[in-house]
Amino acid sequence: MSLLKKIFTAIRGGATEAGEAIVDANSIRILEQEVRDAENHINKAKQDLTAVMAKEMQATREIEGFKKQTEEYETYAVEALNKGDEGLATEIAEKIAGIEAELTLQEETKASFSAHADRLRELVKKTERQLAEYKRQLTMVKTTDSVQKATSAISDSFSNSNSKMMSATESLERIKKKQRDFDDKLKAAEMLEDDNSDASLEAKMKQAGIGPQNASASSVLDRIKAKKGA
Amino acid sequence: MDIKKIAEALDQLDAEAREGYDFDHQLIPGEEEVLQISLRDREEIPVYLTLTDTQILCISYLWDDVEIRPETKGEMVEMMLDMNIPMPLSSFSRIGSKYAVFGALSLNSTTEDIAHEIVTLSDNALDAIDVMSDFLK
After folding, report:
1. Looking at CA atoms only, how far is residue B42 from chain A in angstroms?
2. Which residues of A touch B91 (CB under 8 A)?
3. 3-state per-residue secondary structure call for B25-92
4. Which pTM was predicted?
5. What is the pLDDT of residues B69-113, one digit of tens each?
């Protein structure tokens, strides 16, 4: 069963409350063991691969050697024939046949090493894919586990602090109110700032004798006289 | 990466990196350590940060199952699915009986990235409650 399916089944079964493990600790341990096993397999396969590749290279070198020897003895055989020594030429030919037999054997060995190396490379790749899959699953299960534990820590801290858990709408309303209060304060400060600058402007104007002036006794008297005269 | 180091690094950030918000944080001890981050004037809906093997998880709890108007629950859940992609950086989820928004970050994230995640998550949480309030009691 895939791990996601296990988690799905556990959640569906209601195993979501704090303290109830969605994925039991045993599954985590098994997965971790599988990760370790896969890593060991990869290491072992890589070591084997190194050894086989070394043998493959050794075989290649020997094949080259046999080929060189064959060429060398062929020249000798030609020389012997040139000298008319048929007997020696035959002996050399036998030697060449012997080398060629070994060459064939070595080529077969090399082919078998190559095939083995290919198999090991395939195995490493396959195990690496498997390891990645185990790790993905382990991440899934560990994240689920972490979140569950974190949630339980948060709930515990809440109940320890005796603070009442507010509903979402209450919380939002309080936050909005704080925001409104802040905005109101900002507005009030701006208004106060405006008032202050108005007042100082008026004071300056008054000093310069500009704008509406406070009535003086003489101006009031002038006004009365003007009314009387009318 | 260590959760206490993240807390210290967040303290060092300038106002611009905190996107104008003041962060207050406290460590909640437990089997899994959690950093509770409160943005000033938004203390009621904090952001919780926790580390897993592969990621940094930031979670804000929205509401509990019991707060949902039962007759609207199906529609609410569908709306959450519909809103999941449009909502920047965060996704809806449910942990136990609590609905939540969360964001996951790489363990290689910078402190600025984490701060941005925290502020965005907080914005998203408030927006989500606001737009979904019709479904709540």
Report:
1. 6
2. none
3. EEEECCCCCEEEEEECCCCCCCEEEEECCCEEEEEEEEEEHHHECHHHHHHHHHHHHHHHCCCCCCEE
4. 0.70
5. 999 999 999 999 999 999 888 999 998 888 999 999 999 999 999
